[in-house]
Amino acid sequence: MACFIKGVPAGSILVKMGGNAALLRWWTMFVILLGVAPLIKATSYRSAYATMMYVGTPSDYEFYVAVRVLIKSLSLLRVQADLLVIASLDVPLPWLRSLEEEDGAKVVRVENMDNPYKHQDNFDKRFKLSLNKLYAWSLVDYDRVVMLDADNLFLQNTDELFQCGQFCAVFINPCVFHTGLFVLQPSMVVFKDMVHELQNGRENPDGADQGFIASYFPELLDRPMFHPPPNGTKLDGTYRLPLGYQMDASYYYLKLRWSVPCGPNSVITFPGAPWLKPWYWWSWPVLPLGLQWHEQRRQTLGYGAEMVVILIQSAIYVGVIAMTRLARPSFSKPCYRRLDKSINLVHNILKLVALLCILAAYVTPFFVIPYTVHPLLGWIVYLLGAFALCSIAIHAFLLPMLPVLVPWLGIVGALMVMAFPWYPGGVVRALSVFGYAFCSAPFMWASMVRIVASLQLSLEREAFLSARLGESSLNSWFNKLY
């Protein structure tokens, strides 16, 4: 088909261009490559790393942050696979747009799978929707899928896992494999059979994905260990994965170093208590590995979402400290215009109020700091907030500063003991923390006794002065009357 420009055949133009024809051909190829390059980049792989998201728990936002860090960290490792997020329909759309547009993930929307085990006595409501993980078997556009929990920390590329068979998982428990990471071959036949087993009430010890999948593949314990073939071929069957693909963080805390001889040390998992997941700012230095997770977040997602709140809180705390240095209010004097027989009750109530105010000064900042901020920032803001609120109690009840701040100093000391980087092992570290707590206990008790004694002395002095002032006013009134 001839191409014309204003009625002139394109071929005649090339003839007239003479030596410029070669240049035009190169220019045409360059334009074609520019158009094809995005398509090549967007081409889907036949393998995928997948994780899931759902809402309905108190930790929805924290897990959203964890999923984003997981996806970005896999991108940094240049994995040759698609990155998928299996998201329930009620996940907020702004979160999904961030995953797709900023993190490069592909989102698969699914309906929440009904959990028939939710009425079991031992059921944990946190795992009510964890059976959404079964949707991984419906991803039939892929040959292999590595299904992940959000609390995995990747140390290196693990694309060799896509060579494993139809189902592969790690036994971090001697008898039960862990579903925080496993390899599967998608199959609608298997997926429909799993849904059928759910409807029939298949036995599930914990009512979550862990118990169901473990009961569906009961023979895995007797299967051989996975070793990736050097020629890159995919294996058939089921295999146990080496422990290096799911290194339980508790193994690290025993020796404060990794010594997992089975397989490459590739992935760390944090299956412990939910309030000690690595993304919480208080997880370090309580758990040393928390800082490693936050280092991955710093390199990938950053902390821009929390910094505004951190700066506002810091400004408020600094303002409170400045105000308490300028004013010395006392809320106790108006409380003594009572009968003598009730003065002891008033004293006891004021002592209790003062102690509760001091307790609130140490507890309140902990809960208002954004949970997923970097631990160093979190602890600095916490200590600043505790100091600011303690200064209010000190000036309101005319308390001595040092006894009130003894717990503050104790927390600083405990952080230094836990963060000390040169312990020979986890046992020595635990004994050091225990020894520090044992030695600090008498100081804590002495500070509380000193606070109560100071309150009693202050109350008695102010009560005496109030009584004298009241008597003087009464005599003056009588003198004026007569």
TrEMBL record:
Alphabetical list of Gene3D superfamilies matching this protein: Spore Coat Polysaccharide Biosynthesis Protein SpsA, Chain A
Keyword Transferase: yes
Alphabetized UniProt keyword annotations: Glycosyltransferase, Manganese, Membrane, Transferase, Transmembrane, Transmembrane helix
CDD domains, A to Z: GT8_Glycogenin (cd02537)
Protein name: Glucuronosyltransferase PGSIP8
Origin superkingdom: Eukaryota
Transmembrane segments: 22-40, 307-327, 348-373, 379-398, 405-424, 430-453
GO molecular function ontology, one term from the record: glycosyltransferase activity
UniProt keyword annotation of Transmembrane present: yes
Annotated coiled-coil segments of the chain: none
